[in-house]
Every structure is written in structure tokens, then in C-alpha cells.
Amino acid sequence: MLPGWGRNDRVVHDGHTGRVPRILGVRTAWTAVGDGEFFCPGCGGDRNYQRLTGRRRFTLLGVPVLPRGESGPVVECAACRHHYGTDVLDHPTTVRFSAMLRDAVHTVALAVLAAGGGCATSSLEAAAGAVRAAGYDDCTAEGLNALVDALAADTGRVYGQPCGAGLTIELHEALDPLAPHLAPAGREAVLLQGAHIALADGPYTPAERDALATVGAALTIHPDDVSRLLEAARMPS
Question: Whole-model pTM?
């Protein structure tokens, strides 16, 4: 490509002489209107980006002559320079996704513990292990127990009761934004973590089943699949 040519420039040849009497094309002048960090699908990781809008012009001999309207907006990766539609910003960054998953597991654990009633040591230890594995390295059984007590005191909820409106809202707030970005196996894994916490001190109670059904609904898992997964969790591994 010759210097000064844009990707949309077009060469028109003279069929008799082989000369190039003129160059016609369309050139876009981009203007940055914002920036930030996003997950670049081309690079496969978190990168800086610029949000661009453009003005298109016809060119003659490389010189802009006539406006052709606006272009964009687009998102340009600062690393690979590829352009993407602005819907690419709907995908969370790796850091943001990790935080969403960590908060989701923490909320599910609290919901199942609150539904379980007495917060047996085995359930607390299972919950603490799941939350630590999700990224809360300093989570302890004692800390979770204190949070469950505080949750019950704050909502006036009695242990062992089905999910109330407040806890249901918290589960949806934590899980609804995450679900579209999880593969089916990932959504099932979050539900199964809750199931293993519930089963750590014995069979499911009705309140635990209700809490786990709420988790499944927030993760957009079909009720039949929720029932299948809860039964599968009961089988020895």
C-alpha cells in the first residue's frame, strides 16, 4: 500500500495505457470520545481501549473532497488496534468477572446457611472453603456465622425459613448480571456449590431446597435441571 492510502481507497486503472489516472476512495477521520479497559476478544485478555466516532469523506488523489456521513461509534483496542462494536463493552473484564463470581458464591453460601437453620460446623466449613476458592482468601467459618447472624437480625428472619423477599433480591442482584457470562457448566457449578453446603450437615431441608431453587432461577437454570442437579449432588462421588 502506498503512503497516504486508506484501507477504503480504490485504484481505477486506464485499460488502454495501464496508467493510474486517478485514485478514488473513502477515508474515515476518527475522533476519540472516551477510553477505559475492556476484554478484547482478539487479544483474549483485558486491554485499554478508545471509543471512537468517525466522519467519512470521499477522497480524490488522497485528498478529502466530499463528506459521506458519520461512522461508528467503534471500540479500538490499544494493543491490537482492531475495531469492535460497542456491544463488546457489555462483556466484563477478567478482573470484573472474577469479582462478580466471588460475590455470587459468597451470596449463595450465606443464603444456604441462613436457610439451613443451626449453621452446623460442617456446613460452615464447607461454605468457607467454597468462598475461599472463589477468591475471598480470608473467609472463615466464624466470619460467615457472624454474617448469617447479622443477616437474621437485620431482616428479622427466622433460621430455617424459606427465602424471604430481601434474600431473594440479594441473590438476584448477585447472580443476574453474572449468568449471561457463564457457560451452562459454570452456572451448574455455582448451584452445586450451594447444594454441597446444604448437604454438609445432612439431607436438604425444605428451606434449603427453596433457597437453591431461587439460586437456580437467578442463574437461568430450568427447574427440571435444578431438581436433577440437586439429586445428583446427593450421590456419593
Answer: 0.76
